[in-house]
Amino acid sequence: MAWGLRSAAVADVEAIAELRATVMRADLERLGRYDEHRVRQRLRDSFSTQYTSIIIVDRELAGCVTVRPAEGRQWLEHFYLAPHRQGRGLGSAVLRTVLERTDAQGATVGLNVLQGSAARRLYERHGFVVEAQDPVDVFMVRPPGASTAAKA
């Protein structure tokens, strides 16, 4: 599948907020945390064109990913793929590209994923390990150069 990244623009924020609401709904409902307004507003409040890339497939917005400096590491957040683009290797390809960049910088990468989210397996396959967790979130970290080999 041919895909690419482009820098996010202010005009992308509402499309990304809708994508976030769609992608996160099932996990947030399972955790009793889904709020129709809040799920979109949290994206709007932290949206940064400086650190966000739009994932493009067939000239359409297929997802997004943000990598921003925070707490002495690079923080991976707002990594969403349209549901019809999931499960086909696109997430792994994008994540591999992002991690090649952070590895080249010698940067540790941190992220959080919702408890019970299928995305956790993707991150584990790319070298992330659990650093801490609470009833809602699992906080994961990946040192530079950690194995990105797919695990069985």
Summary keywords:
alpha+beta; 152 residues; 7 strands; 32% strand; 4 helices
How would you describe this structure to a colleague?
The structure is a single chain. The chain has 152 residues and is of the alpha+beta class. It is 32% helix and 32% strand. The protein is built from 4 helices and 7 strands. It has a 7-stranded mixed β-sheet with strand order 1-2-3-4-5-7-6, sandwiched between helices. Helix 1 packs across helix 2. The radius of gyration is 15 Å and the shape is globular. The mean pLDDT is 94.
Low-pLDDT runs of 5+ residues are none
Structural class: alpha+beta
The largest pleated sheet is described as: 7 strands, mixed
Taken as a percent bin, the fraction of beta residues is 25-35%
First-to-last CA distance:
23 Å
Overall residue-averaged pLDDT value: 94
Roughly what percent helix? 25-40%
Strand order of the largest sheet: 1-2-3-4-5-7-6
Number of helices: 4
| Overall morphology | globular
H and E string: EHHEEEHEHEE
Number of strands: 7
User: What's the alpha carbon Rg, rounded to whole Å?
Assistant: 15 Å
